[in-house]
Amino acid sequence: MTRPPFEPASDLDIETVSNQLGRQARNVLGIAARCVCGAPTVVATAPRLGDGTPFPTMYYLSHPAATAAMSDLEAAQIMPELQQLVQTDEEVGAAYRAAHEQYLADRESIAVVDEIAGISAGGMPVRVKCLHALAAHSLAAGPGVNPIGDLALARGDWSPLVCECREYPVRAASAGH
Ligand SMILES: [Zn+2]
């Protein structure tokens, strides 16, 4: 795979992500998903940070409304239910393992970092540990790749198709309208 699985970030994207995170965004490789308004929702981060630290979570959920929705789901204890699904539903389990492989392939198309070889994010390939990371992967990859991220997005009260950027201290990137 030679194409980067996301588009490059503009200066405005970096500024918007920094506002979303409440700190200067660093090691940004690109923007992997956007709100319908154009603001970044998932930032793609380098597999090795500028200071040398290995960083497995290439797809990072940056939008505050999205992260709040995933935190709400985690607080509502839906992760044990999703964990059960991964373990008992063969189709979901197989898709989840395939999502893990795709995550690694995306990341290794950027750089192979030995310290995190075989480690993706969110608990993949067999655990459900972080809905933020799984939802970020689903948003980056599109529907039908990460079944647990897809379910989390479907259950959460946030959607990339309904802009909530103005309700958060986010300066939305121009979508050209
Ligand atoms: Zn928006």
How would you describe this protein?
By secondary structure, the protein is mostly helical. The chain has one domain. Helices cover 41% and strands 9% of the residues. A 3-stranded antiparallel β-sheet has the order 1-2-3, sandwiched between helices. A hairpin with a 5-residue loop joins strand 1 and strand 2. The radius of gyration is 16 Å and the shape is globular. It starts with 10 loop residues before the first helix and ends in a 22-residue tail after the last helix. The structure holds zinc ion.
Describe the secondary-structure layout.
Layout: H1 11-21, E1 28-34, E2 40-45, E3 59-61, H2 64-75, H3 79-88, H4 90-108, H5 131-141, H6 147-155
Antiparallel strand pairs: 1-2, 2-3
This protein binds zinc ion.
Zinc ion (ZN) binds at residues 35, 37, 39, 163, 165, 172.
In short:
With 177 residues, the chain is mainly α.
Helix amount, in percent?
40-55%
| Mean pLDDT value | 92
Main sheet: strand order? 1-2-3
Main sheet summary: 3 strands, antiparallel
Distance separating the two termini? 34 Å
Number of strand segments: 3
Structural class: mainly alpha
Order of helices and strands: HEEEHHHHH
Domain module count: 1
Proportion of β residues? 5-15%
Bound compounds, each kind once, are: zinc ion
Count of runs of 4 or more consecutive helical residues: 6
3D shape? globular
Radius of gyration, CA atoms, in whole angstroms:
16 Å
Question: Could you name the ranges where pLDDT drops below 50 across 5 or more consecutive residues?
Answer: 170-177
